[in-house]
Design goal:
ATP-binding; ATP binding; nucleotide-binding; 384 residues
Length: 384
Amino acid sequence: MMTANISKAFLPVIYTQVNLEALGDGIIHLGFQRSLHRFHTILLFLDAVIKRLMTDVPFGVLLSGGLDSSLVASITARYLAGTKAAKQWGSQLHSFCVGLEGSPDLKAAREVADYLGTVHHEFHFTDGIDAIEDVIYHIETYDVTTIRASTPMFLMSRKIKSLGVKMVISGEGSDEIFGGYLYFHKAPNKDEFHQETCRKIKALHLYDCLRANKATSAWGLEARVPFLDKEFINVAMAIDPESKMINKDEGRIEKWVLRRAFDDENHPYLPKVTDKMMLNASNIFPHNTPTTKEAYYYRMIFERFFPQNSARLTVPGGASVACSTAKAVEWDATWKNNLDPSGRAALGVHLSAYDAETPLDNKPSKIIESIPLMMEIPGVAIHG
């Protein structure tokens, strides 16, 4: 018969503790140490994912199409290929995504799932309002953003569990560790950047981890988060915060450290377009050769669906700008070397056309010289 005091039985316990403030002081810098960091980051994160695959029940991955979940899914799929674990529920890894029908997130998740070869399950988010009361009851918070994010996850977890799945791998924690939220663009210096990542990690149990844990466990589904592995956090938070900060001049975008760590041209974890591929674009696509990495990526998808030469000949090509025909390039020589066909490439053309005081010949339209050669496609890593 149990005689222990019930209040003592439910005292909170700290299972692991990371001294965040003691890290991030520039232990890992540039040059050799940066290469060493990349090596450690890869090994530790691979290990973090693999450790969480120890199970004897049917499992899958949550795949939103973003960098974090896509990377987790890629490592999982690669590791499980040819192992017994992959055959517990069919011969392929299963992935799950939820969203509004026709949303970009669902499209991105499908593209990553196709690349990885997973059995992909897509759930459409329709009855969110009806589930609000149940969501708040189970996640035990009134924080607006947490409730919004928890609702589709709550509904998806119910459907996942109905398929017989008992455990899922998820990508929470990366934004907090690497400063992936857009407001980190405004961080005034590396010290402020690092302190904010520390605050975000310490508050995870009130927000993203609260959602991931309770929205899934409400249906008896277990969520495992490899980004919050203790050993991985110890290394990731020891990186010089300067290397994590967004720097457009150096081509660093959100979570640049993580992107570069898994930028493997020979064995890519995610679909991408490299500089090497662009150099060979004219040989691969002699007709309407793509001139940007975005165009190259779209062309690869098109060729997968429509490999016939007759199909590619139906698409018009040639130099153009802002929805024009090739005539626009003849009319204004400043557009000749422009690679991007969008209207963004010719800012000022309307103003110059209607400026009565300055003749057009004396005031050419402004050409943006810093047009990026790549565009972030949700869920697809397009690297330089």
